[in-house]
Amino acid sequence: MLHVQGLTGGYGKEPIVKNVSFDVQPGEILGILGPNGSGKSTLLKMISGILPKQAGSVEIADKPAGNYSPKAFARNVAVLPQMHAHAFSHTVRATVELGRYPYQTGLFSSWSAEDEAAVNHAMERTGVARYANTLIESLSGGEQQRVFVAQALAQQAPLLLLDEPTNHLDIAYQQQLLDTVRSLAVDEGKTVVSVFHDVNLAALYCDRLLLMEHGEIAKIGLPQDV
Ligand code: ATP
Ligand code: MG
């Protein structure tokens, strides 16, 4: 589903991510681990096309990532960034609704019952439905994180790229979120690539782990081998 080959690049001349290659299959969760600054977020940003690459290739569903139109890309890939720069004056519902943007064909006419259901389901799954009409800025850090996860889920994309999805979450919500992610992979066949800081948590929920060091793959394999 996701094929990354010799991926190299960063923010300037000096590459941050160096010659990274891996594959992820449908239904599989790949966890990315590594110290601060090892290039985990940069790698996700390069796969999501936010950063240009200097060398290598990214294929999603057998098609070069660069060949997708922005909307088609967003229907296929949901990205949860590590840092959120959103319009905080939106309500929770409006923020989750943004996840349906890739499916809209007109400005006012195309909102469907399916969009509504996707938004409601995503809010239920992340426990933010009861804040639907609350402004984002008046929620706690963990509640906001759950809203951004809901936005990514509402996208219903076959590939999810998650950068520290459990950021700011308490233990109970960490488990709830990771159970949800597991069910997206196991029951719905989604492909998941997710950055983690907690090795034990990653080992528990991921099928394989990729350890980054200085922008390179130090190890990749089954959780017990990494
Ligand atoms: P963390 O665990 O702290 O999230 P990370 O593994 O995700 O770390 P990256 O964010 O990928 O690390 O950063 C890798 C390197 O790229 C760092 O040395 C950092 O200084 C550099 N870097 C990150 N963002 C930028 C940016 N916007 N412009 C220039 N350099 C950057
Ligand atoms: Mg990071």
Walk me through this protein's architecture.
- There is one protein chain.
- The chain is α/β, with parallel strands linked by helices.
- The protein has one domain (2-225): P-loop containing nucleotide triphosphate hydrolases (Rossmann fold).
- The protein is 32% helix and 24% strand.
- The chain has a 6-stranded mixed β-sheet, with helices on both faces. Strands 2-1-4-5 form a 4-stranded antiparallel β-sheet, with helices on one face.
- Helix 4 packs antiparallel against helix 5 (141-154).
- The radius of gyration is 17 Å and the shape is globular.
- The two termini are 23 Å apart.
- The chain binds adenosine-5'-triphosphate and magnesium ion (MG).
- Residues 40-41, 82, 163 line the site of magnesium ion.
CATH class: Alpha Beta
Low-confidence stretches: none
> Helical segment tally?
7
Strand order of the largest sheet: 6-7-8-3-9-10
* Most strands sheet: 6 strands, mixed
Portion in helices: 25-40%
* CATH architecture field: 3-Layer(aba) Sandwich
Series of H and E elements: EEEHEEHEHHHEHEHEE
**How many distinct folded domains?**
1
Write down the overall geometry: globular
* SS elements, strand count: 10
What is the subunit arrangement here? Answer: single chain
Keywords: ATP-binding, Nucleotide-binding, Translocase, Transport
Protein name: Adenosylcobinamide amidohydrolase
Domain ABC transporter: 2-226
